[in-house]
TrEMBL record:
Family, similarity comment: Belongs to the lyase 1 family. Adenylosuccinate lyase subfamily.
A biological process from GO: 'de novo' IMP biosynthetic process
Entry's Gene Ontology cellular component terms: cytosol
Lyase as UniProt keyword: yes
Keywords: Lyase, Purine biosynthesis
Protein name (database record): Adenylosuccinate lyase
Length: 432
């Protein structure tokens, strides 16, 4: 991921130097297990512990010649360790170290993402509680539907992100595996017990059955979960963008002092952060498809997955970390305009009460089709005449007044009726 959309901590996790550092961590853990079994002498093990290292530039030089990054890495380690370096990578194949280390990177990336995600969850929880009773119009197809509250929008987001927390924990669990089963997964040179011991020391579980590689359904699931989380952020960012449109301006993402919205139009306050979230969500979701395509490898393995994973795994985790951070900033500094919400709610002059009016006519004995016809006819007149409202129609037209009193109409057009069960929703979510 380009620096523009990267935070240092998670980017550092995917740096080339850190990758080799984790490879060395795996290799030393295997050596320790061999030492415990009496294969590696104490003096050699001490040399490995004290001298094991690598030189990044040297690895790159060697790889230019041998065209194999693991061999280049091992050669550099051997140059540091000396004769005892012959034990490093003993009985292992490239995927043993590479796949185990990659899973460690994914686990550590998930840990960082969980921290970001939980901050977004908390920010959405606070907004849901703060604006629980802030009435605004709800829309379907972009058209006014019935009243809702701003808090309920954030309650939706809170619930979704809580589900995403569960998904990410499960994705982390599924990639928290290692393998040391050798060239085609048959443990030809390393016993399963050694694999189990090394994996435990690294905080991993052994892959129950592997080919030469850890099965890529795990990686595909991980990437798909990142895509689902990105989709939720996209949904919320898009909602803020829609509510920020100038004709409504019900909410607005933060606009910093000194910020400029347009090179041509000085008045502009564009939702650029939310737009960035939406754009990067598309990248993350597209990368998930690569994870699916990496699942079917030839026989016990090929390396068609390797080049793709070097791009999509770092990019997806770094981009998700970035947009989680940006969403937290937006939610923590959101501008909310209650007066504008009231104005927008009343823009359609009571049409949002049409279902309530219809149901009351049914309660008074009308057939549903007839009640629907009467309310729809009146509603179309309101759409056509900006000088009138649905409430006026209900108070003045005989097809309503013959069944409804003025007191009935006042009750029907009370917005609080629509909000009476929001508390029950909040109770379900544990928000009150």
């Amino acid at each position: 991921m380009i620096d523009r959309y990267s935070n240092p901590e998670i980017s550092g996790l995917w740096s080339l130097e850190n990758k080799f550092r984790i490879w060395l961590e795996v290799e030393i853990a295997v050596c320790e297990a061999w030492h415990q079994r009496g294969l590696i002498p104490a003096e050699d093990m001490q040399a490995i512990r004290s001298k094991a290292g690598f030189d990044l530039q040297r690895i790159e030089e060697i790889e230019k010649e041998v065209q194999h990054d693991v061999i280049a890495f091992l050669t550099s380690v051997k140059e540091h360790v000396g004769p005892a370096g012959r034990w490093v990578h003993y009985g292992m194949t490239s995927s043993d170290v590479g796949d185990t280390a990659l899973c460690l990177q994914m686990v550590r990336a998930a840990d960082l993402l969980l921290v970001r995600l939980r901050k977004v969850i908390e920010a959405s929880r606070l907004l849901a509680i703060k604006y629980k009773d802030q009435v605004m119009v709800g829309r379907t197809h972009g058209i006014h539907g019935e009243p809702t509250t701003l808090g309920l929008k954030f309650a939706h987001f809170y619930a979704e992100m809580k589900r995403n927390e569960e998904r990410l924990i499960e994705a982390r669990r599924q990639v928290a595996v290692g393998k040391l089963s050798g060239a085609v997964g048959t443990f030809s040179n390393i016993e399963p017990a050694l694999e189990e011991e090394v994996c435990r020391s690294l905080g991993l579980e052994p892959e129950p059955v592997a080919t030469q590689v850890i099965n890529r359904d795990r990686h595909a699931f991980y990437l798909s979960v990142l895509g689902v989380i990105a989709g939720g952020l996209d949904r919320m960012a898009q909602e803020i963008r829609l509510l920020q449109k100038s004709e409504g301006r019900e909410v607005e993402e933060p606009f910093a002092k000194g910020q400029k919205g347009s090179s041509a139009m000085p008045h502009k306050r564009n939702p650029v952060i939310c737009e960035r979230i939406c754009g990067l969500a598309r990248v993350i979701q597209s990368n998930a498809m690569t994870g699916f395509r990496d699942m079917p490898l030839w026989h016990e393995r090929d390396i068609s997955h390797s080049s793709a994973e070097r791009v999509v795994l770092p990019d997806s985790t770094i981009a998700l970390d970035y947009i989680l951070d940006k969403m937290f900033y937006v939610l923590s500094n959101l501008n909310v305009y209650p007066d504008n919400m009231d104005r927008v709610l009343n823009h359609t002059r009571g049409l949002v009460f049409s279902q309530r009016l219809m149901l009351n006519l049914i309660d008074r004995g009308l057939e549903r089709e007839e009640a629907y016809r009467r309310v729809q006819t009146a509603s179309m007149e309101v759409w056509a005449d900006p000088a009138t409202s649905l409430k006026q129609k209900a108070l003045q037209q005989p097809e309503f007044t013959e069944l409804l009193s003025a007191e009935d109409v006042e009750r029907i057009f009370d917005v609080q009726y629509f909000l009476r069960n929001i508390g029950a929703i909040y109770t379900r979510l544990g928000l009150q």
